[in-house]
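Deliverable D5.2: sample structural annotation.
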Amino acid sequence: MLVGIPKEVKNNEFRVSTTPAGVHALVVAGHTVFVEKSAGVGSAITDSEYVKAGATILDTADEVWAKAEMIIKVKEPVAQEYHRMRRGQILFTYLHLAASRECTDAIIKSGITAIAYETVEVNRTLPLLAPMSEVAGRMSIQVGAAALQAPNGGRGVLLGGVPGVAPGKVVVLGGGSVGVSAASMAVGLRADVVLMDINLKRLAEIDDIFQGRVKTIASSPYAIEEYVTQADLVIGGVLIPGAAAPKLVTDAMVAKMKPGSVLVDVAIDQGGCFEGSHATTHADPTFKVHNSLYYCVANMPGAVPATSTAALSNATLKYSLALANKGWEQAMSDDAGLAAGLNVHDGKIKYAAVAAAHG
């Protein structure tokens, strides 16, 4: 198969979909890999490293998309890429279509076969979302702590406190990969951490993981309001696979929060779990709602590409090889988990949650 690796063009997106090791595995399996010139520079990967792995470097994105039978990306296509998609081509990437009617419509119109990393399933887990969820969860505390600093508009709280001064209060919504990763970092900084989830069994597992250092609370609108309004930093990490995120923190709750408190919406790729959320970029990451600061960057792991690219490529390579070796229909016939990744084919939505999100 002819496989294309284009350079990412989303604002401040420095990741690339496949490392030289991944390219080498595809080439050894008998496939031809086209990499756009400088595609890996943001992740500290040179063109010469790709050439050494067996890739062919092409000068432009147009050439890569035109030649390739399968495009492997990191992020969903943006407007400047829509015209490059075509019927009969495979697109394998993060899509998050429930959050974007514009992108969904463009993919439908193109006729391309679009397979989403975030809906591939194995034993009710999301193996291609997990590595970026872990990165984003850990980053959420890092960026939240920075936003809390007074020069950045925050209330001037040090999450870990100091002897004689109470630590900052962190509330984490969601007990999945994002939530546990965020809680781990917050505990490491010696913050006062509460994690909320609707799944009591999951809360018991998290309590055991952290040996009581994280307070676990059964989630409800009443409990969310109680804890969020006391928090210095709130992390939104809830997920319904493929669907729009539920709005757990209302505008009315935020109006009651401490001035200068910070909310980091890691669910923004799926529309966000705070009522006032809208997607931002690394170039302009925050905005105010009432007296609180929102951080809603839709590609958080793009800021740490050397780590994120390697983690993503490690996770996706197995599936990229299956699609290239067998074609998408046979690969999905052989692997029901990969079949769950099919979001759009031949102008029709194939994932129920995406269809529901857009009516």
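Annotation notes: The first strand starts at residue 2 and ends at 5. Residues 305-326 form the longest helix (22 residues).
The annotation will be released with the project's public dataset once the embargo ends.
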